[in-house]
Task: inverse folding
């Protein structure tokens, strides 16, 4: 077995590393772990420790394992005064309801009256055994209709009386009674 004859530089480097590791290992295990550490005391307002509001000037000794009841009482008396925001809830708070609701002033405008029915009632047409029919005119057009029939695609003929007829405007749901009038005069040859 040839050790280090091929590359003497690597052998020297490996020996130096081995010596350093041995030194650190011995140093780590040879230190006395029971040696007393220096006492650490902190006071409020000292460098490196923030001052607490309303806290007493108490020195903390980490060597003394006894229970300090005065420090516990001081910590119990502190009260958290937050801003009212729940830090555990990501949703925004629900807004408070308005005390008095806003009342709108609504003016009720009556609907306009329906347009008048422009039909003129000027006569009857009846045969024995048939229902009565009426003659109606509008703008020169003459219509003959019985009860329940539609005239001019807009008006329904209702009850036919002796001197009147009831006409309902189907589009506006408006009923009007039309009286009997004279027949429209047609100019004769003359």
Result:
């Amino acid at each position: 077995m040839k050790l280090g004859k091929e590359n003497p530089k690597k052998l020297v480097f490996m020996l130096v590393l081995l010596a350093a590791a041995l030194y650190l290992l011995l140093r780590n295990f040879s230190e006395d772990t029971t040696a007393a550490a220096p006492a650490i005391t902190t006071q409020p307002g000292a460098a490196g420790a923030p001052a607490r509001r309303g806290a007493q000037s108490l020195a903390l000794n980490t060597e003394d394992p006894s229970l300090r009841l005065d420090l516990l009482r001081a910590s119990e008396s502190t009260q958290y005064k937050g801003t009212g925001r729940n830090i555990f809830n990501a949703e925004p708070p629900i807004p408070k309801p308005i005390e008095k609701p806003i009342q709108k002033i609504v003016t009720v405008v009556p609907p306009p009256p329906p347009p008048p029915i422009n039909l003129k009632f000027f006569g009857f047409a009846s045969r024995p055994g048939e229902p009565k029919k009426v003659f109606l005119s509008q703008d020169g057009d003459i219509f003959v209709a019985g009860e329940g029939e539609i005239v001019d695609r807009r008006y329904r003929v209702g009850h036919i009386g002796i001197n009147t007829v009831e006409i309902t405007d189907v589009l506006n749901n408006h009923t009007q009674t039309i009286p009997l009038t004279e027949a429209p005069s047609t100019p004769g040859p003359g």
